[in-house]
Amino acid sequence: MTMPRVLLVFLMLTVLSATSAMAGEGTLIHNGVERRYIIREPQIAALDLKVPAIIVLHGGGGNAESAERMTGFTELAVPHGCIVVYPEGTSRFSRMRGLKTWNARHCCGYAMKQDVDDVGFISALIDRLVAENHADPRRIYVTGMSNGAMMTHRLGIELSGKIAAIGPVVGGLFGDEPIPPHPVSAMIVNGARDKSIPLHGGQTGSRFPDAWDGTPLKPAAYQGEFWARANGCGQATDSATAGGAVLVRTYACPQGRDVVQYLVQKGGHAWPGGQKGSRRGDTPSKALNATEVLFTFFMEHGRS
């Protein structure tokens, strides 16, 4: 390696290992509506680098701030040279920072009932990140909790040409989703004691039943089966970690594609290893750190 090349690599590593994030708040007009997001960027302004971008979707009734606090993705991913973005859903209370939902087709609330084009919004946000914020178009990742996890599934299906991997947490599928045209790796996390997203499917146990359209959920395991089909994967192998507190199902997939599903045995409707989503929310299990395993999974996958 030549001396200029050595120096360049040294400078890149120095910048990407910076522990501070460039904080910002942005808005994007989509379909005539101003949409808000929080963005945390590594200090890469001095170098023309393309870096991974992780989009984190809040749960129903949440907002960008709650997603950041709940998951801790900023503290983990930004020091490793990643952009982390926390977009917001919509609400009929336009001036309120909370009570936001995503249109995941059969859920939830205002966004579903108004048929808000959240897929178009996130697609436009990805385009902006690539054009203006140094995001690598081959390393775009999406994760989210609950309603945000359902939206993560929808984005993985409808934006499969833009997203490398997804990580839905305590979400579900309904059984009428089409297979995406492009493979998207998936890591799925559910809680066996989740009353809002029942392990065996059926009607949601949400405190807000009118937030749904009545379509029953498929069992949690269906999510792994769906993404295994989408990625051309074969049989699954079951194992356990954390002394049996977390069950892991790993599918045999073609090279470059992976589908893994975690089931936290004592997990409820919460982000494992994170913070409570609300005062009345379930206490997160500490048997699994969802942010850490998702981050590792994302960094191992890029679009070909």
Automatic annotation (TrEMBL):
Location of the protein in the cell: Secreted
Domain of life: Bacteria
Alphabetized InterPro entries for the sequence: AB_hydrolase_fold, Esterase_phb, FaeB/C/D
UniProt keyword annotations, A-Z: Carbohydrate metabolism, Hydrolase, Polysaccharide degradation, Secreted, Signal, Xylan degradation
Gene Ontology molecular functions: feruloyl esterase activity
A Gene Ontology biological process term: xylan catabolic process
Gene3D superfamilies: alpha/beta hydrolase (3.40.50.1820)
Signal peptide start and end residues: 1-23
GO cellular component: extracellular region
Name of the protein this chain belongs to: Polyhydroxybutyrate depolymerase
Species annotation: Oceanidesulfovibrio marinus
